[in-house]
Amino acid sequence: MKENLRVLFRSVGVLALMIILFCYAMFQGGFVSWFLFYGYLPIGVYQLLFACYPLRAWQVYREIENPVRQAGDEIVVKVHMKRNLPFPLLYCTFEEKFPPSLMKEDTKKAKYHSSQMSEQMTVSRRLIRMLFPLFRRHFTFSYSLQSLPRGEHVLDKVTIQTGEIFGFIKKSRDFQVENRFVVYPYVHDIRFMSDLTSYEQGGVVSNQLQQMHTTIASGVREYAPGDRFTWIDWKQTARKQTMMTKEFDREKSMDILLVHDSFMHQKKNQLIYEASIEMSLSLMEQLEKKDYQTSFVSIGKKAHLFELGHHEQQIELVKDYLLTARPEEQGDFSMRFREEMVRFHQADIIFLIVTSMDSHVVQTIQEVKQRMKHLSVLYIHPGKLLSEEEKHMLEPLRFSGIAVQELSLEQLATDPVEVIFK
Questions:
Q1: Which region holds residue 319: left if phi is over 0, alpha if psi is between -120 and 50, else beta?
Q2: Do 422 and 376 meet the contact criterion of CB atoms below 8 Å apart?
Q3: Residue 153 needs a FRET pair 20 to 30 A away by CA distance; which of 99, 196, 360, 410 works?
C-alpha cells in the first residue's frame, strides 16, 4: 500500500510537469518552449504507462537440479521469469530472500582444519542479479549455492524491482515461490581398527568383520526389501510364480546400539555437534555394510530410537532424523542415558558418541558397563590434545574395561577416520 501511494504521488507529479510545460508553451510561444514540451512528452507518456504497468502479472518460478545433496555440496538454481505484455523495461533486479537455515556454511572436511575452523559456521548469503528485459517476455538465469549446510531448506520468496529510465518512478513486488531441497550430513570414510563378532558358541574377538556365509543355501523364502539380487532363486521363482530368495546359514549377527548425545553442553560449539551428527551417520552406514544388526538412538530431552536391522527404509528414517536434528540446550545427558539404557540390556555392544565429559557422565557409563558385554566411547573434542582434566576423567573408564577413543576435530579433516572397536 505504501509503495502504491508513492507511485501514485509521483505519477501525479509527472502529469503536473507535462501540464506546466504545455501551459508554458501556450503562453510563451516560440521554439524553445514547444521544444521542451514535445521533447518531454514521450518521456512523460512512458512514465505514466510504466506507472500503470502491473508487476503482479509476472510469473516467477525456479528449477533446482537434483534437490537431494550432501553437506558441503553445491546446488544450481535456474530462475524463470515470464510476462504477457512486452512492455519495454530498461532493467530490473532480482533478489533471492534466503531463509535462516542457509545462513550457515559447511565445507565438508575442510571445516575441521584449524585454519578454517569456525565454531558457529555462520555466513551471510545475499543474491541480487541485474537483468535487462527490454521487450523480452521470457528471460532466464542461473545461480549456484555453495558449501550447503545440513538441513531441509525452503526458498519461498523473491523480490523483483524495476524502474523507468530516469528512476523517478520505481516499482517492486514480492513473489511467493516455494522450492524445497534437502542436504544430508557429510559421510566420512570409516576404517575399523579392531572388530567384534559374536558366534552362536559365544563372543570372540576378530580382526575381520564376519559376513554371511553365502556358499551353502539352507532354504528359500519370499523376497523381502533389502535382499540382494544375487540371492534370487530363479527356479523356485518360476515354479511358484513369486519372487523367491535363498536363505543361508548365518553367523549370529551382533546387536550394536549406536548412542548419540544430542545435548549442547557448556561449550556452545556448533562444529562439535555437526561432527557428532556426521560420525553417527558414517558409523551407522559402515556397520550396515558389514552386515551388523545395528540400532540407533539419539538422546536428548526425548529419545529418538530407530531399530534398523537390515531394512533400507529404516536407514532412511535415521537419515531424515539426522537431516534436521538440533541440539538440546538444556538437560542432563547422564540422567537420560541411564534411563534409556535400562531398555537395551540385550545389546551386545553399545557404541557411545559424546561431545562432553564430566564426572556424572563417567559414573553413568561405568554403571551401564556392568550390565553390558562391551561398551565403547567415542569422545569428540575441539582441541588438538586433551586437557589434564579430561585425561583424568577418562582414566576410570579405561580401568573399567571400557574402550575409549578420543577424536579431535582436526582428525576428522582426514579420511579415512580410524575408529577402534575393542
A1: alpha
A2: yes
A3: 410
Confidence of residue 175 (pLDDT cuts 50, 70, 90): very high
pTM: 0.78
pLDDT at 24: 85
Number of residues assigned to the chain = 422
DSSP string, 273-294: HHHHHHHHHHHHHHHHHTT-EE
Identify the CA nearest to 356 among candidates 388, 376, 378. Answer: 378
3-state SS class at 32: helix
3-state secondary structure of 42: helix
Which residue, 128, 125, 62, 60, is CA-closest to 94? Answer: 128
CA 103 centroid distance within chain: 12
39-44, long-range: CB < 8 A, 24+ apart: 43/165, 43/166, 44/14, 44/15, 44/17, 44/18
- Could you say which DSSP state residue 232 is in? B
- Return the C-alpha cell found at 51: 506507472
